[in-house]
Amino acid sequence: MHYVCTGNCGCTSETPCVCETEGCVKEGKPMIECGCTDSQHKEAIDKTNKGE
Ligand SMILES: [Zn+2]
Ligand SMILES: [Zn+2]
Fold it and tell me: Ligand 2 centre and the CA of 21: distance in Å?
């Protein structure tokens, strides 16, 4: 399990946190929990799309 920013920075984290990338569209937003194994982060992206 990992956490992904679904903005334009594309950063990932092993722990829950918010995006801290200056200028990212998701800056200050919580990163999304993701369980993918192929680094595509489709799971996180799907969750983001559902929520918006
Ligand atoms: Zn970001
Ligand atoms: Zn992922």
Answer: 18
pTM listed for this prediction: 0.86
Assign 39 to helix, strand or coil. Answer: coil
What's the pLDDT score for residue 20? 96
**What is the domain partition of the chain in residue ranges?**
2-51
Strand order in the sheet with 32-34: 12-13, 2-4, 32-34
pLDDT at 52 > cutoff 80: no
For range 38-42, the mean pLDDT = 95
Residues, CB within 5 angstroms of ligand 2 (ion): 34, 36, 41
Q: Which ligand lies nearest to the CA atom of residue 26 in the structure?
A: 1
